[in-house]
Specification:
The structure is a single chain. This protein is α+β, with helices and mostly antiparallel strands. The chain has helices spanning about 20-35, 45-50, 60-70, 100-105, and strands spanning about 75-80, 90-100. Strands 1-2 form a two-stranded antiparallel sheet. About 15% of the residues are buried.
Length: about 110
């Protein structure tokens, strides 16, 4: 164990973060499926529901994921909500919704 690894409360050491591209391959299809439902969602709600792993740099890379999904035309902004992430103290976060093209693609 290196000096930066902290054991969890149960004494286990969390796994080393994977590289960004490997992480992206894991989470991408989950967010595409969430977008295909047509329901409004937050990044955290999808990640929490599916118990997705954090990226190597969570402070920047969750937002980057959402930007990539938007730029690729899978999602669009839907508004704002209070975050349900426990560590944010209900701060404002963007909400997302799958595009019509994403919903059509899922239906095909």
């Amino acid at each position: 164990m290196t000096t930066t690894e902290q054991p969890t409360l149960d004494g286990t050491v969390p796994p080393e973060p994977v590289d960004y591209e490997t992480w992206l391959a894991v989470v991408w299809p989950v967010f595409i499926a969430a977008a295909a439902t047509g329901k409004v969602f937050t990044c955290y709600s999808v990640a929490d529901e599916h118990k997705l792993p954090n990226p190597p740099k969570p402070q920047a890379q969750w937002g980057r994921l959402m930007t990539l999904l938007r730029d690729e035309g899978y999602i669009r902004t839907a508004g704002w909500a209070c975050s349900d992430r426990p560590t944010t103290h209900h701060s404002g976060v963007r909400t997302w919704k799958g595009t019509a093209a994403t919903r059509r693609e899922a239906a095909a």
